[in-house]
């Protein structure tokens, strides 16, 4: 089976995105894993199928790099919206479904996408996991947050993997974000992502979680936060004081397009 795809980057998060508006493509877990595996496949943090929706412009099906269905991916959602625009599926403003929720997105300028997130929930403050002082919030995906003053040298892989697999606290796993507060309206974040099982260069829902929790704890004072991610790129998180309106903005671009044979 030959499949046309686009390789996209959202602030460093990379995705394989496929137009499945005709519903002709059905991929197995092992096929998705093969496509996302670096060096032997295309390589990506996840795979997205853009499919028809009965009520909105399209439906986004997101799969983690391990081939399993994933929860919401903020940067993936922004890339899907940009992909839908450049391929003519939608206009610059679009509404789409992901995991049964509605998301609104706007192409605000060249390769800049703004995404309205769902209302966050399940805030948990000040608990310990594997010796670390933690906080938690669900922003469409589960995120544990740990503050540090030594972000550049922090062992994200080992600490992230240990906490992610703490099934007593997180039966379904968690993403793990390590944060350094860099100003009243700025943060730096490194994220160990569930499903990738490694640190990624960016995480959209993680950036949102970092901004919201930092505001909730009084570590930042603005409701417009600039988040620097591992790629060196920045994401912008804007939100209302009650956190019922949350927006994620940043770059999304097509890196290349191609055709792959999948057996």
List the helices and strands and how they pair.
Elements: E1 2-10, E2 13-19, H1 29-36, E3 46-51, E4 58-64, H2 74-86, E5 93-98, E6 101-109, E7 112-116, E8 121-129, E9 132-138, E10 142-147, H3 156-164, E11 175-183, E12 186-193, E13 198-200, H4 204-216, E14 224-228, E15 234-239, E16 246-251, E17 253-261
Parallel strand pairs: 2-3, 4-5, 10-11, 12-14
Antiparallel strand pairs: 1-2, 1-17, 3-4, 5-6, 6-7, 7-16, 8-9, 9-10, 11-12, 12-13, 14-15, 15-16
Key descriptive features of the protein:
single chain, 263 residues, alpha+beta, Diaminopimelate Epimerase, Chain A, domain 1, 17-stranded mixed beta sheet, 17 strands, 16% helix
Summary of the model, kept short:
By secondary structure, the protein is of the alpha+beta class. The protein is built from four helices and 17 strands.
Would you write up a description of this structure?
There is one protein chain. The chain is α+β, with helices and mostly antiparallel strands and about 260 residues long. Helices cover about 15% and strands about 45% of the residues. The protein contains 4 helices and 17 strands. The protein has helices at about 30-35, 75-85, 155-165, 205-215; strands at about 1-10, 15-20, 45-50, 60-65, 95-100, 100-110, 110-115, 120-130, 130-140, 140-145, 175-185, 185-195, 200, 225-230, 235-240, 245-250, 255-260. A hairpin with a 5-residue loop joins strand 14 and strand 15 (about 235-240). It is globular and about 50 Å long.
């Amino acid at each position: 089976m030959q499949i046309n795809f686009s390789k996209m980057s959202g602030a460093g998060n990379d995705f394989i995105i496929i137009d499945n508006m005709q519903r002709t493509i059905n991929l197995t877990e092992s096929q998705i894993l093969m496509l996302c595996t670096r060096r032997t496949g295309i390589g990506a943090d996840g795979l997205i199928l853009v499919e028809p929706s009965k009520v909105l412009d399209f439906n986004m099906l997101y799969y983690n790099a391990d081939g399993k269905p994933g929860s919401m991916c903020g940067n993936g959602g922004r890339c899907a919206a940009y992909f839908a625009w450049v391929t003519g599926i939608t206009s610059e403003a679009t509404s789409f479904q992901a995991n049964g929720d509605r998301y609104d997105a706007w192409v605000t300028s060249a390769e800049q996408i703004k995404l309205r997130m769902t209302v966050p929930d399940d805030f948990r403050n000040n608990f310990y996991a594997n010796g670390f002082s933690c906080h938690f919030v669900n922003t469409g995906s589960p995120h544990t947050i740990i503050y540090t003053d030594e972000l550049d040298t922090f062992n994200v892989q080992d600490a992230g993997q240990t906490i992610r697999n703490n099934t007593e606290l997180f039966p379904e796993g968690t993403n793990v974000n390590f944060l350094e507060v860099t100003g009243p309206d700025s943060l730096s974040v490194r994220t160990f992502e569930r499903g990738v099982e490694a640190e990624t260069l960016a995480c959209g829902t993680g950036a949102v979680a970092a901004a919201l929790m930092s505001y909730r704890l009084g570590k930042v004072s603005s409701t417009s936060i600039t988040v620097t991610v591992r790629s060196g790129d920045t994401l912008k998180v804007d939100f209302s004081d009650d956190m019922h309106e949350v927006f994620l903005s940043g770059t999304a671009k097509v890196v290349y397009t191609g055709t792959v044979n999948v057996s």
